[in-house]
Amino acid sequence: MSGGIRRPDAGGTLLALSNVYKAFPARKSFFSAEVVSVRAVDGVSIDVPRGKTLGLVGESGCGKTTLGRIAIRLLAPDAGTIRFEGLDITHLSGEALRLTRRRMQIIFQDPYSSLNPRMRVRDIVGEGWHVHGIARGKELRERAERLLVRVGLTAEAGGKYAHEFSGGQRQRIGIARAIALSPKLVVADEPVSALDVSVQAQILNLLKDLQEEYGMAYLFVSHDLRVIRHMSDQVAVMYLGKIMEHGPSAELFREPLHPYTRSLLSAVPMLGNAPQERIVLSGEIPSPTAPPPGCRFHTRCFMAQPVCAEVCPLLREAAPGRFASCHFVG
Amino acid sequence: MSGPLLAIRDLRVDFATEKGTVRALFGVSLSIDPGETVGLVGESGCGKSVTALSILRLLPSPPAIVRGGEILLRGENLLDLPEKRMCEVRGKAVSMIFQEPMTSLNPVLTVGEQVAEVFTAHRECGRREAAARAVSWLGKVRMPDPERRAREYPHQMSGGMRQRAMIATALALEPSLLIADEPTTALDVTIQAQIMALLQEMRERERMAVLLITHDLGVVHDFADRTAIMYLGRIVEIAPTKGLFSDPIHPYTQGLLASLPGKGTGTARLSSIPGAVPDLSSVPPGCPFADRCPYRQAALDRFRGGADSRDSLGICDREDPPLFEYAPGHFAACHYQRAMRGGGAS
Question: What's the rounded mean pLDDT across residues A20-27?
């Protein structure tokens, strides 16, 4: 399935993952000594265009978080290549990796556990400047305060500690830290999932404004289809380590191709403008330690045929710019 | 029987904390008819779970103190019942399912034993029959292979199956009211759809009423007959679900609906509610939403800027607005809308 996605606009591609694999060892059960392999990411190719947002959506255990970590080399893939700004960074290490990492940052889901409780907010925000020798002392402090104001906090916030802030404010601090080094790519891993609805909207607006201002690309990871739809230019749908469907957001949400995407969209209340017939999938998500043979989705698919249990479908272009891995699409 | 199944009237609950008394419910009134589904929606800390736990008298006391009001189940005030009678109400007349099935199931009992316990605890039948009934209930909630699953422990099951087991426990004695507190929040989207479809089927088959507590407006839109919006310990709007979504009256409800992402793809900004939910220990007098309310803030700006000679909405800072009826069954608590739209008596 390598090269499944055509790259018509290579100059516009910031990050390209090609045929990436990652497995983790896991004990079969809590009391068992037997070690099995969890294939978290199983041959995935995606591109993140410069200055745009690729939404990565899927249910728990589908590998979306692992893929996000691989994208910025927090994890090394078992196989496959990662190209960032045209440069192969798959095996980069030491100083070269450190310099590349300046241009890729991450925002975490949980604003409570991802901020150091012993550091003042301005030092959290300015740590990257300190590490890379960009600013220290008074200058660091002033720059941090300007950045805090930009993300909707006050300059005084710099002197406080993370626990003095609400969840939404902490996420603003996490965003300030992520953009401090003017990265080209930000992986946002479920950045609003821990927040209340009215605060979610504030943070999503801030992320969009900052993207416009700084021209960053986002790899936006979420289980929430409504948030993905709002944020993304392109969307990739993952299931058990594989991409099921990939395409421009507006078209994917208007007319989903893959049966898994169709059932996902129909399961979310109020997404469609007109009420649609609900597809309720039977069965559970299979364990990633023992994914089904053939098409990963065939055990729950309402369109499944005998071939689906035997042959794993390739991600194919079903319509211009739109890709699906299903024997019966396109 | 006519009249509501459950009627909560002017319920006031405080919590005694180290920093003093915190008011959690400021006089909540809500009724549920037999067979009706009422959605209770709000952000964290608004009091929706406190309301639910009050009905079953499951709030730990201390710190919780019920300051006033009544909770009438078929006319009988649950707040006056002796604990022994209350035990009969729980599980039998009113039962509850929780957000996280892992922490609400007993890890050292098999799932079958936990469902069977409902029958033996209420002295419905002997142990052997209870075990058989438990398997039958697991089948009714579409647990795959119920006889085998009944012998398994909660940790051997997925989140969706645990939630099915908890629903079986809650429905086993055919209660007339089920309280569902964020029943699908911890589940994946496709499993959420399965569980909501199951609840819908059970609700129709058992003709039970449901109090559905959620932060997800999408879930109540598809599922509830009526919806109540809570903010800082009060119901600020309650209406037939259709009317609430087509004509939201309270600015908080308007803000919540407008801030929902996913209505389209594009660069449009979401409208958002400024600020954050204030801390319950420092709720200002007057309308609890005034600090974040676009109508109140616009009036204040006009007054301060000299465009208005008097502060037309000064009342918002002084008086907590009561609920008014704007359309049949559609109530909202807002001084501004009261002035703009008029409306009947509370």
Answer: 89
